[in-house]
Amino acid sequence: MEISLIDTAIILLIASIVGYYVYLRYKEEKRKKEKSLIPTLKYYKQKFYREKDEYTQRAEKFKNKMEEYKNKIQQIKGGIKDYQWEADEKKILKTLKGTDFEWTFSVMFEILGYKVSQPPVYKDHNIDYIITLPTGKNVCIDFIDHQQAKKIDKDYIQQLLKGKDKYQCEGVWVITNGQIPEETKKFGLEKEVVFFGKEEILFFFPSIRIVEDYYEYTTKFHNYELLHKEMTDEIIRRQTWIKEVEEKLEKAYKKVERKKLGK
Question: Is 175 in contact with 144 (CB distance < 8 Å)?
Fold first, then answer.
């Protein structure tokens, strides 16, 4: 079927009309967009400023909470003598085992102001932690609970001494809530291995309640620290967005001014 010249002309006419209509719609939408650009940018500028103020207030609130718990942590460290052992805490001490025993007293050393670190190799030569004394010298620490204390013998102590030499420690402290035979203790002391049994723990260390309070306050401090950082990040984002909006507003005002001047 052949298309006549008249049909072709009609098709072209329709296409031209549709094309022109599309063009007019495009121009109208562009005009509306340009007309609403400045009010829209102003709206977002106000919105971002408002949100920035809200996040700033929250950040200040969380900062105050951080300061509150920081002071409580300092009060704990400054009031160590107030944490005397009570009867129920002594019972808990006797039953502590494994990682709970290690964690409790590693945190205890941290509270007491020692720098606490772990050897690169887990339980290398039976060494659990290395603490740094105020003198700057290191001491190797072995935590061994009441269930494992029976395995401490001369060979065990020899392993501790190898760890002491490897990590260049001044001595070795064995912290245990179990029973160590007197003969083993004597052999260890001759080799600069000091034993802290239940009685020594009760005498030299504050009660385990201090660890509970310290953990509670440090956890809350770090939680508020994270929240404060989130608010700070949101403030920075709003500052960036405000700057971008202000730059777009400046360009929009200049464009309007040029149109008024016929440029």
Answer: yes
